[in-house]
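Lesson 9: reading folded outputs for more than one chain in a single document. The general rule is that every protein is listed as its sequence immediately followed by its structure tokens, and records are never interleaved. Here is the first one.
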Amino acid sequence: MPLHELAAKTAIKLPEVTITQPFGEDYDVFKVVDKVFMLSFHLQGKAAINLKVEPDHGVMLRDIYPYIRTGWHMNKQHWITVYEDETLDEALIEDLVLNSYELVVSKLKKVERQRISLLRTTK
């Protein structure tokens, strides 16, 4: 499955996710309660996504996977960019999208976290 399709399919299943295009129709910005957790775009003709990560996790991922690099136009410590690649591990991408979402949710206000938790249990 193409990178953008896989990432979007994974993200839109999650509670309170919205998609905006503040940078134009070629850039999808995925937010949870107005906080960005994923950006989807093309860079130099290749599909790419930016995801939030724990700094140590980002370093490890960049060391292991050649298609994962520091976050393009983002904080290099807290964001990674994943590029479309023929060796892309779909399960890894799904996990990275979910982890990015969870990382952002963990920083939300308590009432917002509780609402998201409740929405997850009712699905």
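And here is the second record, again sequence then tokens.
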Amino acid sequence: MANTAFKTYANEHGGRVLLLLLLFLLAIYQFIHAGFSAFVIICLLPILILSVYAVFRWRMLAFWLLIVINYFIQMKGFSLPGPMSLPNELLQLLLLGIAIIDTRKTPHFERAGNLMLFALLIWCSFCILEIFNNTCGLGMNVGAWYTGARLLAFQLLYIFLVFSIYISSPEILIKYLILWAILSLFSAIWTWKQVHIGLTPAESSFLYGRGRTTHIIQGGTLIRYFSTFSDAANYGCNAAAAAVAFIIFGITTKFKKHKWLFLITAVLVIKSMFDSGTRTAIFCLFAGIAVFIVLSKSVKIAVPAAIVGGLFLFVLAFTKIGNGNQQIRRMRSAFDKSDASSVARDINQETMKKYMKDAPWGIGIGMMSDNVPANNKYNLMARIPTDSEYVFIWLRTGRIGITIFLLTTIMMLGGACFIVMFKLKSRSLIGIGGGLCSAFVAIQFGGYANQVLMQFPNCLIFYGGLSMVYVLPRIEKEWIEYENKILAEQEEKKRLKLEKKLASRV
């Protein structure tokens, strides 16, 4: 009877039974001859095959997975096998591969032909030329160069292409902004958990180990919290830039549910920004808001924002209000030019300038302390704390490289700002574009003072956000139709609610 049932099942399901049987036998063989690791790899093959199938069946699944993994990849205790950048890179390449396969049906890549692509190609081309940089006199180190170049340049190109291709409709745009808000809210809540409930074992290990000197300050009385991020500086700058975006989304959207979500997110994220104790974050916040005041071209927005921002800045810089709170005192020290941390940075940068006079192309992309011998002239430059993404780029690519990076960044930002100011007509879409441009400027300010610009999750969020601005004119017509539809549904719900309320009074 059992034999008959098996035959019937085998006839109905064809070769799948045989395939599973072969995989099972292969797994047992590998377990006996190669050990447990090989056994696990063979057992995971069906999951890998199903995952690839799911991605090709539901194309956006890989995109949303990329956003979520990118956000949590540096969370203490969250680890994936292989290099930290590998999951991001594989998902980005997979998404681009899918787009190439679909090109015959849908010409995705035409959406990527814009000024930002041109600027990124210039930067990537320069970084490719850096492979021949032999300032340190150590010959060509392709491995070290590729490790540095893919994080410094190639990932920017991947991010731009992925966002240009996959943010293709108003519905996807809104889903992305909501997902970003939910992730930011989670980080804010996690910060509250760290402050009031405590740290996980992995977080404690970081705080009292590698992070002790930078995260436990003021004689051990103040802890800088880092939420789901690698460190407090990374989180503080991200929180400031994200808060700028959500404030702008909140005050410009016409959807009530979204307005409350974005504004509540902004408030909680700003609170968490203070818990990070990252002083640069204050300047990131104000820089982003200042950019939107210009982009909005609206007196109604500009005047209140300028007044509120000016008062906030005045209170921090010129008064002692709130000095009873350690975190506020910490933020206020950002305006003190004699602060010990600022003095140390200035001394380091003066030292760097002396060495960099002889290195106009930099010491080389990928040249870190383990690549440059102790007796090499530039060993100190490979070891010295840069504290800033811009200083890091300057050291690796020299004054030529940092100039090209700045010019291409201005090109990308300038093109996006032009779109917001002169090409978009929808006020709510201008708000989205303006919020993304302002957040990009805010994180650039963070990169000027801290090494956060190319860190996870910032690079994907903010360079991806700027890429989206270039897509907005292409979907504006659909956006207006989508917005009118949602607003009509809002009004209908409001009318039905009012009718029900009136009927209950009769």
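What the second record shows: The chain has a mean pLDDT of 81.
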